[in-house]
Fold this protein.
Amino acid sequence: MGQTITQKILAAHAGRDQVRPGEFIIVRPDFLVANDITAPLAIKECDRMGAERVFDPDRIALVPDHYVPNRDIRSAQQAKAMRDFARAQNIKYYFEVGHMGIEHALVPDQGLVGPGDVVIGADSHTCTYGAVGAFSTGVGSTDFAAAMALGEIWLMVPESIKFELTGTLDTWVSGKDLILHIIGLIGVDGARYKAMEFAGEVIAALPMADRFTMCNMAIEAGGKSGIIAPDQTTLAYVDARAQRPYQLYASDPDAEYTEVRQIDCSKVEPTVAVPHLPENAKPVSEVRDVAIDQAVIGSCTNGRIEDLRIAAGILKGRQVDPRVRLIVIPATQEVYLQAVREGLVETFVDAGGAVSTPTCGPCLGGHMGVLAEGERAIATTNRNFVGRMGHPKSEVYLASPAVAAASAVLGRIASPKELCS
Amino acid sequence: MTLRGKVWKYGDHVDTDVIIPARYLDTTEPAELAAHCLEDIDPAFVRSMSPGDIIVGGENFGCGSSREQAPVAIKAAGVSCVIARSFARIFFRNAINIGLPIIICPDAADAAGTGDEIEVDLATGTVRNVTRGTTHQAEPFPDFLRQIIDAGGLVPYVRQRLAER
C-alpha cells in the first residue's frame, strides 16, 4: 500500500520507513512557532517542567503579533515576558515590532519553513505552512513547552482526505472562495483529526498566496493539517528564501484516503460565510443587500501583497461608503513596504481607509477594529464565531479581499462584478 | 476516581472563542480566566455553577483557536469533567495535557440535559445519569495517552522524561 505525502513526512521525522493512520508516533520537528498569546503560558509550563534551556534556539520563532504594538499594560506585560525569554534563551528568530509580521505570513516569507518539514506551532493556523509542502499543525501552550524542552512531540498519524479541484475559475474567484466553498461542503468538523490534501488542475494553476489561504483555513474544517505537494510554483517561492535544505515528497498513486472529493470549481462563485460558523458558505449573490459597518482586509488568511493588490485594484479611484470603516492591515513589514512602494497604501488612504501596522488585532476582537453591539463586519479573516471580532451581539461575514473591498465601497455585501467588469 | 456533578448542556461546535473570549487572553492566571468562562454563550454559567459540575457538549467541542486558556478556564472554574460526542483535536490535546478530565461518549452526551445529576467513573469510563437512571460507556483512551493522563498531565510527564536524560 502506498503512502500519502503526510505519512511520508511524518515517517521520515519518526525515524521510520512508513507509518499508518491512527498510529501514535514521536516526531522531531524541524521548526517551532509561537506568539505573544500562547508563548507566555508555554514559558511558565517550560519552567514547571524543569527545562532550563530550549532544545535548539535556532529552530524556534517567537513572533509578537496578536496584541502588538501593545494595546494596554497587561498585553505589554505578556509581550515583555516573551521578549525576555527570547533574549535569555538566545532565540534566533525573535521578531520585534518594526520587523515582525503576522506569524503565518512572516515565517514562510522569511524562508524558515520548507517542503518536507514538520512544523509545530502554538497557534491553530499553523496549518498554513502546508502550502509549501510541509506537515504543519497547531497545538496548545503545554504541548509547545514540551516540544521546546524535548525537541520532540507525540502525534497521531492522521488519515487524509484528498480534494481534487478541476475546472476553470471565474473572474474574482480566489483561494479564499474555494476554501470557504469546501468548508461549506464538508462542515466545520468535516476533516476533524484529518489531513486535507489539495490537488488537481485548479491547485496547479493557483499562486502561492492563494495556496497559503487555503491551507490556513484547514483548521476551520477541523483539519489537523492542510497540504499541497510541492511543484514549480512552490519551488520558485521556496528557492528564493529557504534558510535550510528541504526535501520534496509526493503521495503515491495508490496512497489510501478516507475520501477523495472531486470538486468542479467552474461553478464556484465568490463566496461569503455568514454568521456564526465558517461552514455557512453562500454565493455572494445570495447575501447582497446586507449592510455593513466595517470591512477588514488583512490577517494570516489574506494579508499578503497579492491580497492588497486585488483590494487596491477595486478601491482605486473610488470612495469607501461614508457609513463604513475600512481597515487594511498588511501582514508583514515587508508587505507593508511593498504596498507603500506600489502606491497601494496611497490608494487605500485616498479611498478613506485606515492602514495599520501588522497585527492580528481585529480578527480575534483584540484591538484595531473591535465591533460594538449590533455591528456587522465583512472580513478577509478566518472565523465568524459569536463574539469573535468584539461584542457577542456583533456579526462577522467572511470573504475574499475582492468582495471585502467591493463591499466597503457599496456599504453592503457586494460582488466585485458590481463595480468592475 | 468518581466525579459527581450537575450538567450544563450546550450544543455542537462550542468554540474556544466563546469558552474564553480573546479580550481576556492578556493573562495566564487561571482564576482570572475562570471568571469569564463561557461568558459569550452563557453569562449565567460562572455565577450559577457549583464546583464539580459537568459540561456536556455535542460534536466538535472546543473547535477553533489553539488557546489553552480555554480548558484552563473550564478547569479553574471548578468543572470536574467535560463530556461530548466528539472533541476538536487541539482542545482534546490541551485538556489531556493540563489534566482536565474529558469523556467521549455520544450516548451520554445525547441523553443528558441541563440540571441532570451525573456520575463519572474515570477509571472505567462509565457515565451514570442519576436523574434519568441511564448508564453509558465511554470510548477508552489509547494506552499511549493513558501514560500522560496517569502521570497527571504533560508537565509531570516531561519532568520525568527530562530527569531520565
